[in-house]
Amino acid sequence: MKRSEINRSIQEAKILLEEYKWSLPKWAYWSKSNYESNPKLSEYLRNHQMGWDVTDFGRENFKKEGIVLFCIRNGMQDIKNEKPYAEKLLFMQDGQVIPFHSHKIKLEDIINRGGANLVLEFVKVDDQKNPLEDEIEVIIDGEIKKIKPYEPLVLQRGESVTVDRNVYHKFYAEKGNGVAMAGEVSQVNDDKKDNYFLEPVGRFAKIEEDEEILHPLWNEI
Fold first, then answer.
1. pLDDT for 142-166, tens place per residue?
2. What pairs with residue 171 in β-bridges?
3. Does the predicted TM-score (pTM) go above 0.85?
4. Which of 120, 130, 105, 117 is nearest to 178 (CA)?
5. How many CB atoms lie under 10 A from the CB of residue 34?
6. Distance CA 20, CA 16 (A)
7. Do 131 and 168 meet the contact criterion of CB atoms below 8 Å apart?
8. Burial code of 165-192, b = ≥16 C-beta within 10 A, e = fewer?
9. Hey, which end of the chain has fewer CB within 10 Å, N or C?
10. Helix residue spans in the chain (DSSP H)
């Protein structure tokens, strides 16, 4: 990805946050020099994977497969007496897809916070990652529902679904209806160790520096 594409995507997310009257912590708006002037806080944020995260999953087609995230709060999976929860905001362009992935440790709720309908698909796989025909049981705002593999589950604004561990899922903004702003409330998140993709992808983007950094990503702090 080009840095200009990352900067533009973050700026678009900030505009959507203003539209929906969401405010982020002060360091969400910091420049690289601001972080350098606050080394203790920067270390905490980096260790807890908190802040901006923009990726094209190594596919080099961000408009088709990619996402902008902001991690507001998070613990650390390997540290005792850490907070056991995390919260993120997720921004998806019209039709933009997050590839099938699962988590072994993290249990999460995905919430449609605003914008377009949010669509999720689920599938279970065997040890060789072959898709199974088993129905998937999900909880939608307290109601249990069984859905077929790859059956689209559409979440309107305010609706949420619990995604169980080891269940592969992808999600995307419903095509033709604009940007979706989603939320994630979960157990501790670790994007380095607890993401398992069905297809080979890169979790973090390779960045071409074609302009100055607007806001550093959390792994650049």
1. 999 999 999 999 999 999 999 999 9
2. 98, 120
3. yes
4. 117
5. 15
6. 6
7. no
8. eebbbbbbbbeeeebbbbbbbbbbbbbe
9. N
10. 3-19, 32-36, 39-47
